[in-house]
Amino acid sequence: MKYSKATNYALHTIVYLALLPPGKTIGVKPLAEAQKVSPTYLSKVLTKLVKSGFIESGTGVNGGYQLIKDAKDITFLDIIHAIEGTTSLFNCGLDHTIHDRQNCFIEKVMNEAEQKMEDYLRSQTIEHILQKVDKNIVNRIRSVVN
Amino acid sequence: MKYSKATNYALHTIVYLALLPPGKTIGVKPLAEAQKVSPTYLSKVLTKLVKSGFIESGTGVNGGYQLIKDAKDITFLDIIHAIEGTTSLFNCGLDHTIHDRQNCFIEKVMNEAEQKMEDYLRSQTIEHILQKVDKNIVNRIRSVVN
DNA sequence: CTAATTAAAGACTTCGTGAATCTATAATAT
DNA sequence: ATATTATAGATTCACGAAGTCTTTAATTAG
Ligand code: SF4
Ligand code: SF4
After folding, report:
1. Residue B109 half-sphere exposure toward CB, CA atoms < 13 A
2. How far apart are CA A12 and CA B69, in angstroms?
3. What mean pLDDT comes out for the span A19-46?
4. Does any CB of chain A come closer than 8 Å to the CB of residue B13?
5. In angstroms, rounded to a whole number, what is the distance separating the alpha carbons of residues A50 and A17?
6. Is B95 a residue whose pLDDT tops 70?
7. Which ligand is the nearest neighbour of the Cα of A15?
């Protein structure tokens, strides 16, 4: 029971992109280097973010990635869902001819718990985060990005 | 990103045991049958619950399992932790010589979110659940158990 | 037009872990 | 002594995460 590494890469990359000067793009190579992951693999992750509409990609010279959604409109939950999918953490794979699933008590608790987590992840946007981040970390990231 | 089936088995078994007449034990076979899982595998799961102090096991004739903690003192989180462990869902496996982990913004959000889920799971006890459960489901379970 | 650049896509490999089985071994009651 | 029951160990199987390699497609610079 763990978040995948892909989610980690996605979150970090979004932060990197959010710190780019508006309009500027960045290729997968520096992003991969900064996170110590192979470019081809990171590219697969980023493609999911493209398909989900958070970032845009361009081919050829001066191609690369850039944010196309405002940082204040991107929540942690958005990114996680884009990578991990949206199926719930708990599901009794059991045969439901046995009894009525409607008033299932276990499932209800487990799903409600997951909702609590999702509510919080939905409340935290990337912008919200950028405001908190230490200035010297920002500079360090910017130095990677430029 | 899913809870393991073992967690499912553990939760259901605890409910079964909670509906047993006090002092009475039940073997792994009927429990496994009710959940359509192999006895040997379920036994491995239950051993974890024994080691965690929720249930007790006895060998030989009239052996089997029984609850030794009051249902009101067993939370969902307890059971989940006993099976899944207690490591957090998110951890950047990254090299932390790069920057200060103390003011890490991503980790902070992810862990806080997990806390929200755990808070709820900690608030829900087995007893709390037994009160809500439909009477005919109780009877059905009792028929399995007896 | 051509060559260089860059992302996307597909096939494939590797690795770890969940899930499960089988086979002992130990403990206990009758 | 024998039947019963849980525990432990070794082992197998399947699946998905993680990553590599190669090809294709799109775009820009010259
Ligand atoms: S009680 Fe809930 S989780 Fe269990 S089998 Fe029924 S529907 Fe599924
Ligand atoms: S920003 Fe946080 S999650 Fe990312 S590498 Fe630093 S400590 Fe780890």
Report:
1. 24
2. 44
3. 95
4. no
5. 13
6. no
7. 2
pTM more than 0.85: yes
Cβ separation B15–A103 shorter than 8 A: no
Assign 3-state DSSP to chain A and report helix, strand, coil percentages, each to 5: 60, 10, 35
Distance B41 CA to D13 C1' (A): 15
**Of the CATH numbers 1.10.10.10, 2.60.40.60, 2.60.40.1930, 3.40.50.300, which one belongs to the domain with range B5-145?**
1.10.10.10
**Which residue owns the Cα nearest ligand 1 atom 5?**
A94
**Helix H or strand E segment including A65:** strand A64-67
Q: What percent of chain B has pLDDT over 90?
A: 73
Q: Which pair of structure tokens corresponds to residue A100?
A: 């009525």
Contact call for B133 and A105, based on CB within 8 A: yes
B121 burial class (0-12, 13-18, 19+ CB within 10 angstroms)?
buried
How far away is chain B from the Cα of A64, in angstroms, using its nearest Cα? 24
The predicted-structure confidence for A65-103, as pLDDT tens digits, reads as follows 999 999 999 999 999 999 999 999 998 766 555 566 666
Strand D nucleotides in reach of protein CB atoms, 7 A cut-off: 3-9, 17-22, 25-29
Tell me the C-alpha distance between A17 and A71, whole Å: 10
B19: chain A residues, CB-CB within 8 Å: none
**Most B CBs within 10 Å: which of A12, A80, A109, A141, as the mutation test of the B interface?**
A109
Q: What DSSP line would sit under A30-62, residue for residue?
A: HHHHHHT--HHHHHHHHHHHHHTTSEEEE-STT
